[in-house]
Please model this.
Amino acid sequence: MKLTNWSRGAAVGTIALLMMIGAPVSAADNPQVAAEIMALARAQWASEIANEPMAQQNASLADDYTEFNGDFPTLLVGKTMSTRMGEVTPYDKAMFSDMQNGRVQVYGDTAILTYNFAGLRRGADGKVVPSLAKSSRVYVKQGGKWMLVHANFAPVAAGH
Model:
């Protein structure tokens, strides 16, 4: 069977396209985006420690934000829910928050921040206790701004 130049080109192009579709997507190393994303998490912690209003603490949350955490067995859905829950007077207070082993993977307009959280909280009894978690945050660029669309905060028992 004899292929014309056009047929050969179409065949090669089709094969190349199929290979690209099946090729794994890899994260881009973007130090600028990594710094922006990490700064958003740290700003949220600083806002909490400073007792700023929940609307300010949740400024970087997208309206359709979702969250898994150690306090609730179900998925929490929506910025409104997160803000309303945060407005309830907590039984403890954040005193210190730190990101350890932070890593940001960038996929176009999506950035995934993973880190170990190390914090200190003062309980209603006045005692300060560690707050440790394995955390992931997913940010998406919306309207030119990085917005937090999902978070998973998996608690780690002290000493583990």
